[in-house]
Amino acid sequence: MADLNPMEQLVVNAMKELGATKDTTIKTADDIMKKCNRPKGLVNNTLTSLVQKGVIKRVAREKASGYFLLQA
C-alpha cells in the first residue's frame, strides 16, 4: 500500500481503528469522516479513490453505503 497519498493513508488508518476490516464490520462514510476529522466531501472523494485502487470495498445498503478494507 505504498502508493497511497497522505489522505488515503489517513482514511485507511481510521478504518483500521474503527475495525472496518471485513464485510460484517462495515462503516459508513460518516463514521470514517468523524474518525478522520476531515470534511465529508474530502473523505468521500478519498473513499472513491480507494475503491478504484482496490484497497477497500463499497457495499450498497438501503440507507447509507458502507465500506471495509480488503487488505487489513
Verbal overview:
It is a single chain. 49% of the residues lie in helices and 14% in strands. By secondary structure, the protein is an alpha+beta fold. The protein has one domain (6-69): Orthogonal Bundle (Arc Repressor Mutant, subunit A), CATH 1.10.10. A three-stranded antiparallel β-sheet has the order 1-3-2. Helix 1 packs across helix 2 and helix 2 packs across helix 3.
List the helices and strands and how they pair.
Layout: H1 6-18, E1 27-28, H2 29-36, H3 40-53, E2 56-59, E3 66-69
Antiparallel strand pairs: 1-3, 2-3
Helix pairs in contact: 1-2, 2-3
Question: What order do the SSEs take from the amino end to the carboxyl end, as H and E?
Answer: HEHHEE
Q: What's the total helix number?
A: 3
Structural class: alpha+beta
Q: On the 0-100 scale, what is the average pLDDT?
A: 93
CATH topology: Arc Repressor Mutant, subunit A
Q: How many strand segments? A: 3
Distance between the termini: 11 Å
Q: How large, in whole angstroms, is the Cα Rg?
A: 11 Å
Shape: globular
CATH class: Mainly Alpha
CATH architecture title = Orthogonal Bundle
Q: In which range does the helix fraction lie? A: 40-55%
Number of structurally distinct domains: 1
Spatial ordering of strands, largest sheet? 1-3-2
Which segments are poorly predicted (pLDDT under 50) over 5 or more consecutive residues? none
Strand content: 5-15%
Biggest β-sheet strands, sense, barrel: 3 strands, antiparallel
Keywords, separated by commas or semicolons:
alpha+beta, 3 strands, 49% helix, 14% strand, globular
